[in-house]
Design a protein that fits this description.
The protein is an alpha/beta fold and about 400 residues long. It is built from eight helices and 24 strands.
Amino acid sequence: MKNLLILGAGTGGTIMVNKMRKRLPSGEWNVTIIEKEKDHFYQPGFLFIPFGYYDRNDIVKPNQKFFPKGVEVVNNEVDRIITEENKVILKNGESFQYDVLIIATGARLSPEDTPGLKAELWHKSIFDFYTIEGAETLAEFFKTWEGGNLVIDVADNPIKCPVAPLEFAFYADDFFTKRGIRNKVNITYVTPMSGAFTRPKASRMFGSLLQNKNINLVTDFFLGEVDNGNKKILDFGGREVPFDCLVTVPLHSGDPVVSKSGLGDEFGFVKADKNTLQSILYKNIFVIGDASNCPASKAGSVAHFQADTLEENIIDYIENKPMSASFDGHSNCFIETGFGKGILIDFNYETEPLPGLYPLPVVGPLTLLKESRLNHFGKLMFKWIYWNILLPGRKLPVTNYMSMKGKRTD
């Protein structure tokens, strides 16, 4: 028997365990997934918790619910990968051999890497919303907060779900307006980028939205430290932004096992071919989702689009054929803009978000790079799609590559 081993049961790992169990003959291949957590969180739902729209019960389900029959599930933590021996060692000393390894260990938050960020004001006046603990603590804080300087800061890129901090700013405007205290809340969006987003057309649109909602934009700000005593953030050049409530998106890094095993870049993300998703160091190691150093968004939609490519390329590798599938960096995201509206963007490595219709070129029904109520409902509907279509590895009625149909380049 040969062994396919998957490390991590987040979005990418869960999709792949479903796909590969279907593709690999059970009499010839063992499929094993290793994941220390027993719960699976719908991470896009973290955004809604601070504003009281969701709670923990709305976004968590048991991991086991999404694993297919015939898969060995190991609830433990990986210590290291011994690549020369095709072996994975767990924290408890147990080991597993692999013929093919898929790394789906995701990205982790590293607030401790920024001086003063995780200090005396952590989860008192300084919060994250990328963890369930941070989102819940912030929800409690907002229930009684009467206003002041609300600063949303992105420490540096790459981060998971690059649009989520913008969504938070838009939702905060909505939330405090409905509470009747928007005039008491000064919202500032602080980013290391030179605009509101990475791509020009989208950056201009989001910049205009921030301006229209009276949200201050501070660009080219790389977080250097947090002064807890004086409640201000400082960049490496000495610029300061004062806060009464700081909502931070901390530095991100790969899982420590990646660097420990010699597979990572300077941030601990697996060094991989951005098109084939194969490790550039070991041919029998592949990567999916946030764990890779591919220059695509670290988002659930990317993992889903990558999965089709990865499935075909692993089969090609097993059959000793040239890899036939290529991932183009496809990503699409619903972006909440508040007051029951949202925006949808669709892009890849080469093409920036463009206006138009999606997924059908004439009838849509979704609009690209334009606010609409339908896009807001699309965002809400995505939770059902995530649990029932994405995680089980089923096909969506869209292409895994980015199509130019319905898009305008003017």
